[in-house]
Amino acid sequence: MKSLHLLGLCTLSLPSFARAWSPNQAVLGESYDAGLFTPFEDLNALSETQFTTLKHPMFPKHGVRIKKSNFCDETVNAYTGYIDVEARSLFFYFFESRNDPAKDDVMLWANGGPGCSSSLGLFLELGPCRIVDNNNTKFHPEAWNTRANVVFIDQPVGVGFSYADHGETVSTTEDGAKDIAAFVHLFFEHFKQFQGRPFHLSGESYAGRYLPAYAAAIYDQNTRLAEYGLTPVNLTSVMIGNGYVDFYRVYESYYDMPLERPEWAQRWGTPRTMNR
C-alpha cells in the first residue's frame, strides 16, 4: 500500500498498482468483445461547432458530449462538454497542458459547497484565465495547466452549467461518484494518448467529501476494468485543500482557533462571544 497525502488534513491509502499501470500492460481479455468499441482517439478531430458523443459498452447509461473551444486560454487546446447520465448532464471544461500535453499528468478539479461551480476555481484560483469584465478574460501565468492537463467539472447535477431534463437529482455523494468514475474511464478509453498517465483528483472545501468517494469509485471500477482486460485508471493522488472532511471535527476546531491565535480572536471574536 502507498499513502496519498490530503493537503494538511489526512492520508488516503491506495494499492500500489495505482502508479504502476501503463498502457502496455493492458491486454484485452477473452471476456471483452473489442469489436463493440471504437475509440475516437484524436482530440484534434473534434468539431468547434457541434458536440461529438462518446460511448462505451461497459457504461450503457453514460455518454460524453465534447467539442473544441477557444475559450479562456488561446495558447492551448481547450474543450467543453457534458457527461450525460440518462437525463442528467454534468458540464466540464478541459484544458491541455501548456508544457507538454503528450506527456504531462491529467488532473480533475472540483470545487465544494456543496453547490459551488468549478468555474470558481477556473476563474479565481488555479484556472488558465481571470475574468476582466462581462465579456473578457486575461491570461493567468500561474495556472495549473502550466504543467498538467486539467478538467474542471460542475457537479453534482444542478451546479453551474450542469442540468437535468426533468429535475432529476443525485441523492448521495457515492451515487455522484459513480458518474465521475464512468466519465474518467470514458475519457481515457477514447483518448488513449492520456491512458496510463498519472491521474490526480483535486479540490477544496466540500470536495473533502467528494474526492475520497470519487477515488473509491475509481478504485472499485479499476477492478472491473482489469477483469475485462482494460487499462485501469492510473489514480496517483488525491489533493484536498482546506477540506470539509468531518463536520464535527471542523466545528470543534472553531472554538480552539481564537485561543491559540489572538489575531483570529480580534477578527472573529472570543469563544464566549462566538457562543452567543
From TrEMBL:
<dbReference type="GO" id="GO:0000324">
    <property type="term" value="C:fungal-type vacuole"/>
</dbReference>
<protein>
    <recommendedName>
        <fullName>Carboxypeptidase</fullName>
        <ecNumber>3.4.16.-</ecNumber>
    </recommendedName>
</protein>
<feature type="signal peptide">
    <location>
        <begin position="1"/>
        <end position="20"/>
    </location>
</feature>
<dbReference type="InterPro" id="IPR029058">
    <property type="entry name" value="AB_hydrolase_fold"/>
</dbReference>
<dbReference type="GO" id="GO:0004185">
    <property type="term" value="F:serine-type carboxypeptidase activity"/>
</dbReference>
<keyword id="KW-0121">Carboxypeptidase</keyword>
<dbReference type="GO" id="GO:0006508">
    <property type="term" value="P:proteolysis"/>
</dbReference>
<dbReference type="Pfam" id="PF00450">
    <property type="entry name" value="Peptidase_S10"/>
</dbReference>
<keyword id="KW-0732">Signal</keyword>
<keyword id="KW-0325">Glycoprotein</keyword>
<keyword id="KW-0645">Protease</keyword>
<keyword id="KW-0378">Hydrolase</keyword>
<dbReference type="InterPro" id="IPR018202">
    <property type="entry name" value="Ser_caboxypep_ser_AS"/>
</dbReference>
<dbReference type="InterPro" id="IPR001563">
    <property type="entry name" value="Peptidase_S10"/>
</dbReference>
<comment type="similarity">
    <text>Belongs to the peptidase S10 family.</text>
</comment>
